[in-house]
Structures are given as structure tokens and as C-alpha cells.
């Protein structure tokens, strides 16, 4: 049985360096609150507010380090609350997505695009992928056996020698299956 740890991803934002400077002040460096499952990735101490056409969320956690482009990742439920209809996309694929206002302690930024519902995916280290015969971008089927067992299809395989094995689903998906971070999923293929 091919077991994969589950990581539940709540709403969060990735910011580029220019936007960090606008929101927190020139030369600002994010502070690490806790390291995440992927090497070099962390939840920052800092949060921002995001404001959509119909609602806002305060205290949205920033994930670091800085990225090339800013993007907000939300669940479908979060999107309804903001008054947006973002597409399901892989992280980084933000072309033609809705924008949002981001407010920090030193300023605000109107993102022209960048709001997505992140596609469920599994990070594979290259060794794990090779051992299990998984190709990058392959679409997988995964069983989760929480309080309400489900089978997830179209789970994107993402492979890198910089990754650690971890399945990322959002809060809506986790709640539907009754699973939490640290539970395990079974790769069906």
C-alpha cells in the first residue's frame, strides 16, 4: 500500500518581494513562525487582510519565502465569502484569475490577478516518484479514509528533488472527508 501524508492547506498568501516592501515597509524581512512540510517553506509570523467585492478576511497568513508573483490561495467556501469565483489552478498559474486588495500595516496592494483555488496535489521527492513509477504532472487517484472516506481524482503529481512527500488539499476537501494534517491517504494511481 502506497501511503502519503496529508497536509491541509488553509487560506494563505504568497507575496513577491516588491509587495512585501509595499505592505510592511522597504527592506522588510518576513519572520519564520513555523517551518512547513516542504523544505525551505515556512508560515510567517506576519498576516495581511484581503478584501474582495463582498467580504474580507483579516489575518491571512503569509507563506514564505518571497515568490516571483503574489497569489492568494483560498477554498471555494472562502471565495464565496469574498465574492469571487477563482478557477482551480496549480500554484503559480495565475494568468486570467481574479484580483484582490491586500492590506498590510504599511500600505496596500491591488492585485490585478492572483486568486486561485489550489488544485489538490502531491509533492513527490524524485526518489519517491521513481520508486512508485509516478511522472511529473500525472493525474492520480487517491483514497482518504477519514470519518467520511472519499476518493479524490485528478490529484496532480508534482516532482522535484527539493520536495518532501506530502498531499496538499484545502479545508473544504479535508472537511468533506473528515481528515486533518498528519493523516494518511492511499495512492490508488
TrEMBL record:
This protein's pathway: Polyol metabolism; 1,2-propanediol degradation
Q: According to the UniProt entry, what is the EC number of this protein? A: 2.3.1.222
EC primary class: transferase
Pfam families membership? PTAC
Q: Which InterPro entries match?
A: PTAC (IPR008300)
Ordered alphabetically, the record's keywords are: Acyltransferase, Metal-binding, Transferase, Zinc
Cofactor names? Zn(2+)
Q: Which NCBIfam families match?
A: PRK15070.1
Family according to the record:
Belongs to the PduL family.
Query: What protein name applies here?
Result: Phosphate propanoyltransferase
Q: In which organism is this protein found?
A: Paenibacillus gyeongsangnamensis
Amino acid at each position: 500500500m502506497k501511503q502519503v501524508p496529508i497536509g491541509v492547506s488553509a487560506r494563505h498568501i504568497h507575496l513577491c518581494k516588491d509587495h512585501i516592501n509595499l505592505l510592511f515597509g522597504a527592506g522588510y524581512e518576513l519572520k519564520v513562525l513555523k517551518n512547513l512540510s516542504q523544505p525551505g517553506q515556512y508560515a510567517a509570523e506576519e498576516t495581511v487582510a484581503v478584501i474582495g467585492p463582498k467580504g474580507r478576511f483579516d489575518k491571512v497568513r503569509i507563506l514564505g519565502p518571497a515568490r516571483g508573483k503574489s497569489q492568494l490561495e483560498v477554498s471555494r467556501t472562502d471565495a464565496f465569502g469574498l465574492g469571487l469565483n477563482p478557477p482551480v489552478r496549480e500554484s503559480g498559474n495565475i494568468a486570467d484569475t481574479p484580483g484582490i486588495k491586500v492590506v498590510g500595516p504599511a500600505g496596500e496592494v491591488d492585485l490585478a490577478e492572483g486568486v486561485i483555488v489550489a488544485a489538490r496535489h502531491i509533492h513527490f521527492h524524485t526518489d519517491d516518484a521513481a520508486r512508485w513509477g509516478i511522472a511529473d504532472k500525472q493525474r492520480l487517484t487517491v483514497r482518504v479514509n477519514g470519518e467520511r472516506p472519499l476518493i479524490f481524482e485528478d490529484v496532480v503529481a508534482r516532482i522535484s528533488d527539493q520536495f518532501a512527500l506530502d498531499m496538499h488539499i484545502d479545508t473544504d476537501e479535508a472537511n468533506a472527508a473528515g481528515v486533518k494534517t498528519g493523516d494518511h491517504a492511499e495512492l490508488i494511481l
